[in-house]
């Protein structure tokens, strides 16, 4: 079944060359989101992978990570926590600045978002250079949480993001 899902994901994610800048091949997930069977299978596969572990919080990374993280949180009976681009969260925040495949960004999380010792699964759509993921892991740890896993729909292996996350259990449904 995982191999079938890998094939379905490959078929339903569209490559868009030179977006958002020349030289980047952008992985467009919108066709996958439009197919409720594949979208549902992705959510179920990530939730099933982590069902044995106690997950208290599922952290989603703005914006595309939210789309997957929220239903996965519901499926696991866990609290959904948003990590947002800077200036969007209204209360006290922790922040981290990082590089990604096409630029730099700052992300934030509410300081009180994670219960003390809370067990956290981080979810995003694409792992590219690993900058976003590294920032999210560091935010969760600074907030007092334990990262029990990091799940992505798709890992772009040639960008070696996995190397930045060597201290985390990384789970990719599809590797290209
Ligand atoms: O591994 P990295 O090199 O850090 O890249 C991966 C990140 O890049 C994309 O987000 P983006 O910042 O483009 O934001 P979006 O989800 O709002 O489109 C993607 O959704 C990941 O979060
Ligand atoms: N090539 C890519 N496609 C989609 N999202 C990305 N985030 C970083 N690099 C990306």
From TrEMBL:
It is found in: Cytoplasm. It is an enzyme of class 2 (transferase). InterPro entries: Ade_phspho_trans, PRTase-like, PRTase_dom, UPRTase/APRTase. Belongs to the purine/pyrimidine phosphoribosyltransferase family. Homodimer. HAMAP family: Aden_phosphoribosyltr. This is Adenine phosphoribosyltransferase. It comes from Nocardiopsis mangrovi. The lineage of its organism: Bacteria, Bacillati, Actinomycetota, Actinomycetes, Streptosporangiales. The gene is apt.
